[in-house]
Automatic annotation (TrEMBL):
One of its GO terms (biological process) is fatty acid beta-oxidation. PANTHER family: ENOYL-COA HYDRATASE, MITOCHONDRIAL, ENOYL-COA HYDRATASE-RELATED. It comes from the Bacteria. Keywords: Isomerase. SUPFAM superfamilies: ClpP/crotonase (SSF52096). This is Enoyl-CoA hydratase/isomerase family protein. InterPro entries: ClpP/crotonase-like_dom_sf, Enoyl-CoA_hyd/isom_CS, Enoyl-CoA_hydra/iso. The lineage of its organism: Bacteria, Pseudomonadati, Pseudomonadota, Gammaproteobacteria, Lysobacterales. Belongs to the enoyl-CoA hydratase/isomerase family. It comes from Luteibacter pinisoli. GO terms for molecular function: isomerase activity. Pfam families: ECH_1.
Amino acid sequence: MLDILPHDGDIVEIRMARPPVNALNTALVHALRDALADAPKNGARGIVLSGAQGLFSAGVDVPALLQLDRAGVQGYWNDFFALCGVIASSPVPVVAAVTGHSPAGGAVMSLFADYRVMAHGMYKIGLNEVQVGLSVPEPIQFAMRRIVGNYRAERLLVAGTMVDADTAHALGLVDELATVEQVVQRSVQWLTELLKAPPKAMLRTRAIARADLLAVWGDTTNLLDPGFIDDFFADETQQVLHALVARLKAKA
């Protein structure tokens, strides 16, 4: 489900490995949360979060989510928020190595990293929740606004737009583009350069720069709006999600 790969300079790569599309089911969310929290405790000075070449993560495992009752759905989203909170509050820098397509939950995770390197070319990224019948909760909208600004975030989120790598880079949604084969390498190189700075000064400055993010995401215990769960079980959302699953099964 995860590959933990050491790199020089006390950098650890946490690679999602749940074929075929790294869909975020409860087990993968828990594994990511634990691995990201444990890495600094085990001596990592920087973390690269990656996926398979060509696909970072397809986002939430919708078929699995639709099998859960209300308590299960609420538990899942609380766990996903906790995962995002671990990335946001990491005591060491995190780079999202967006190794390919990254819709919805995959894109959400990348918002909390210090830096985003995306595969150049045909690959797309975006928070397309509206297109699949889900609203975007305010704490996630805040994280998006923090990266691309208020107006651009509004336009992207309300339409559920997926953009290609060049557009994502132009918008500031990702910081750098690389060939799909070089995304992880460039992520490691960026971290290596950052970690050459005097560590106390760098980490203190980083903490100040990310204080706004921590003010919202430092404690995710009550961050999920119960209204989001109500929306999930609304007829409109359920119809759209079941239609999505039917299309996925037909393609398979």
